[in-house]
Fold these 2 entries.
Entry 1:
Amino acid sequence: MTEPVRSLDARYYTDPSVFAAECRGLLARTWQFGCHVSDLAEPGAYQTFEIAGESLFAIRGRDDVIRVFYNVCQHRAHQLVEGSGTTRVVVCPYHAWTYELTGELRAGPNIKAIEGFDKSTVCLTEVRSEEFLGFLFVNLDPDAQPMEDWFPNARAELSEWLPHWADLKPIQWVDIPERCNWKVSVENYSECYHCSLNHPTFASGVVKPETYDIQPQGMCLRHTTECQSLDDMTYDIHSGFDHYDEYSSWFLWPMFSFQVYPGNVLNTYHWRAIDAENVVVWRGWYSVDGVDDPKIRALAQQDRETTVEEDIHLVESVQRGLKSRGYRPGPLVVDPCGGVNSEHPILHLQRWMREAIDG
Ligand code: FES
Ligand SMILES: [Fe+2]
C-alpha cells in the first residue's frame, strides 16, 4: 500500500522566513510578468515594475527592441526612472548622467575629467526578457532557460485560441487583494474540485464541469474544458474562431495565468505576493485594439461578482485555518483518471513549491 500524498505543512503558507526564501530564490529565477507591450508603443517609452524586491524598467529602443534594465544608475546608484513615460535618453536625476535607450552611457557632466576612464565600459545592467504574445516577461536569472522550455507549446496553443492576439490591448484591470498566502490562491486556482459546490454560475453557465481537466505541460498547468451548452451560457459568445466553444487556461508557474473564456475572450491572472499572508491578484481583460466591448465588460463584471468573490472567501478561510493548532494536513484527492474531482494538479504544484523552498 502506498501512503496517500498529504497537503503541504501549514508553515509553508504562514512562516515569514519561507516567504523571504521565496523572494530571494523562486522569484529571482522564474519568468515573471513585467508589463504589456502596448504600454511601450513608441521608441523611448518606458514602464517600471518590481520583481523580487528589485526595481526594473522596460524601454523600447530606436531599433524597436524592448530591453529591461535594473532601475539603477551606474554612477552612484540613484534610481533612474519612476512610473512610466517616454524619453529621448535616460537621464539620472542625481548628477545627470545620461544613457542611450540601449543602456550605454552617453554622457555625464565633466566625466572627461576622469583620468583613464573609458565611458564605453559603463552600461546599465540588462535583465533577461521575453515577449510572449504581447506580454513582457522577465527572469532575473541570466542563465534561465527560455520560456518555450519552461512552458512547452503554450505560446503556439494560445495563438490558436487567440488568433487576434497581436491586436489585443488591456481594457480593464482589477486588483483583488486576498488575505492569504499566494500559494493558497494559486492552489485554489489550480483545481476545480471545489467548483460545482462554490461556483454555481461558472459551473452551470460557463463551463461543463464533467469535461474539466488540468494536466501539467512542463511547468505550465493546462486547464481544458468544453463550454456549457449555448442555451445555458450566461453571456452571448462570439463564435467566429476555432475553439470558441471551449474554456482553456495556461497557468505559468509560479504566478501568471492566461485564460481564454468561451468566445475567445482573453483574461489574465497575475499574482503579486505582498508578504507571507497577503497577495494581490491582478485580473486583466483585453479586446481587439482596446475598444470598449460591452460583452467583455459584462463577462468581467459577472466574473468579479461570482467566481472571484466566491474564491476570496474560500482562500481567506483556508489561510485562517492554516494557523489553527488543530490542523493536520489531509490527503490530496488524486484520482488516477484525472478529471474535475481530482487534485492531481495540486500534487504537481506542491512538488514545485517544496522544491523552490527546500531546494
Ligand atoms: S547617481 Fe546617477 S548620475 Fe550620479
Ligand atoms: Fe475557485
Entry 2:
Amino acid sequence: MSYAEIIMATLKGIAGDNVSKYKYKLISQKESSAKYGLCEVCGKFVSEVFHQIESRKYEDGYTYAGCKDYFGHKECLESKQR
Ligand SMILES: [Zn+2]
C-alpha cells in the first residue's frame, strides 16, 4: 500500500464514522405562519417559515423513503435533524 493509499483509506474511515447518513435541505418560504401555518415542531407562530427536506443515503444515492419533511422555525427544524 502506498502512502497515498493509506491516507485515502484513513480519510474514508473517518468519513464513514462521522458523516450522517441523512442529508437536509432548508428552504425559506419567505412567508410567515399566516400563509404556511404554525411551526410543526413547537406549534408557535413563525415570522419566516422554513421547509426542511430530509433525505437518506441509500446505496449510491439518496432516497426520500422513510424521511420526514417539516415546516417551521429554522432552529426547530435543525433540532429534528438526526
Ligand atoms: Zn418552532
